[in-house]
Amino acid sequence: MLSFYAALRSSGYSNPVVIDAEDTDVYIQAASISYDIPGIICVKKKRQFLFCRGMCTDGDIAKCLISFHVMTGCDARSSSLDLARAAKWKGQKKKSLMRLPPDDDSLTQHIKRANYLAYLQRHPDMKRHPSPIGHGWELVNGHCKPVRHTQPALPLSIPVPSLSQADFDSNSDSDSDSEAESDYEALDSLDESD
Q1: Label partner for 163 (CA 20 to 30 A): which of 8, 38, 144, 152?
Q2: CA neighbours within 13 Å on the CB side: how many for 44?
């Protein structure tokens, strides 16, 4: 998004730049790169102008903003957090919930995608982007799609422990052994009546 800003500055343009966009992603990116690329950059929000370097007064935190924002689920298509959350919720209704909470494999793939996106956003002056393939993305029928997981959600079989009569006797919930014995006798009498 802010590649044009980097191009303006590298061409020698030194006047202040105002971005007219009401999008959280733009605010985050602008606040972050205001520490990396010299010059004054502002974001127009309704009728006011926000000085981007003033949105985050600590340069070290500004360098982390994009990474945190991407890891927590930035949404480049929604103009507000509410719209982004609504879109994610609607999308979840169509997906299987077998992978909730996230397993290690799904989390690893998410981190790879987030790292790739954060890298692109942190380097708006790049002329050629590195390939996303292998960074949480794959090529499927000519389309670049996110890799959600590389392993099955659940094991193909779950081992069932074998229980013996001794296991039942030692783990009895009853107060006395005589009660447990009477329970077993009642079960035996039910089997005989069948």
Answers
A1: 152
A2: 8
